[in-house]
Automatic annotation (TrEMBL):
It catalyses: a 1,2-diacyl-sn-glycero-3-phospho-(1'-sn-glycero-3'-phosphate) + H2O = a 1,2-diacyl-sn-glycero-3-phospho-(1'-sn-glycerol) + phosphate. Residues 35-191 form the YutG/PgpA domain. Signal peptide: none annotated. Its cofactor is Mg(2+). Its EC number is 3.1.3.27. It is an enzyme of class 3 (hydrolase). InterPro entries: PgpA, PgpA-like_sf, YutG/PgpA. It comes from Psychrobacter pocilloporae. Pfam families: PgpA (PF04608). This is Phosphatidylglycerophosphatase A. Its main location: membrane. Pathway: Phospholipid metabolism; phosphatidylglycerol biosynthesis; phosphatidylglycerol from CDP-diacylglycerol: step 2/2. Keywords: Cell inner membrane, Cell membrane, Hydrolase, Lipid degradation, Lipid metabolism, Magnesium, Membrane, Metal-binding, Phospholipid degradation, Phospholipid metabolism, Transmembrane, Transmembrane helix.
């Protein structure tokens, strides 16, 4: 089924999550639940926001692995996500259904990359990384990353809106969130640098 035959629900309204087709294979069941962000995208209202929360919850312990492993996992989530989101759309028979939130997971992880880098290289030992993650400062920067990503993902300024409307298939589902994550990460890093400069005076 092509994207031309799939319609996207109005995300301003509460929507039921399209069910998994009866008789779906075990692989399709796994892909479907990954597409739903392991269930974080199931709520009828604001599934993208809840999916982002799920991505943040999973992303935080992954960050403790260090920047390079987290970067590799983030890149893999984007690459594999094209197939996951495309196949989940086919199973739902809806292009980019709001309950598909694997793209929000990947976009949130991209937004967290600067913080992961800082934890790994400003505080370079694993012991320091784990201890810094327990400090109020760290938990203050997490909501900033979350809010920035959601703002870009919801408002979709150029080129995010272009990617959302013009690119089809699984790549189309993923690309706008990838761009939103990159833009949010850049703004987050600028804010972090400004705050650190101000605190150094």
């Amino acid at each position: 089924m092509t994207d031309q035959h799939l319609s996207k629900p109005d995300i301003r309204q509460a929507n039921d999550c399209p069910p998994l087709p009866i008789g779906a294979s075990m692989l399709d069941r796994m892909v479907y639940w990954l597409g739903l962000g392991l269930g974080s995208g199931l709520p009828r209202r604001a599934p993208g926001t809840w999916g982002t929360v799920g991505g943040l919850i999973v992303g935080v312990p992954l960050m403790s692995l260090g920047f390079v492993p987290f970067l590799i996992l983030t890149i893999l989530s984007c690459l594999v996500g094209v197939w996951i989101c495309g196949r989940t759309s086919e199973l739902m028979q809806v292009h980019d259904d709001p309950h598909i939130v694997w793209d929000e997971w990947a976009g949130m992880w991209i937004t967290l990359l600067p913080l992961s880098y800082i934890l790994s290289y400003v505080f370079p030992t694993s012991e320091n990384t784990l201890s810094i993650m327990m400090l109020p400062m760290f938990w203050g920067w997490l909501p900033t990353a979350f809010i920035l990503f959601r703002v870009f993902d919801i408002l979709k300024p150029p080129p995010i809106g272009w990617a959302d409307k013009k690119v089809a298939g699984g790549l189309g589902v993923m690309l706008d969130d990838i761009i939103a994550g990159v833009m949010a990460a850049v703004i987050w890093l600028i804010i972090y640098i400004i705050v650190m400069m101000f605190m150094s005076f």
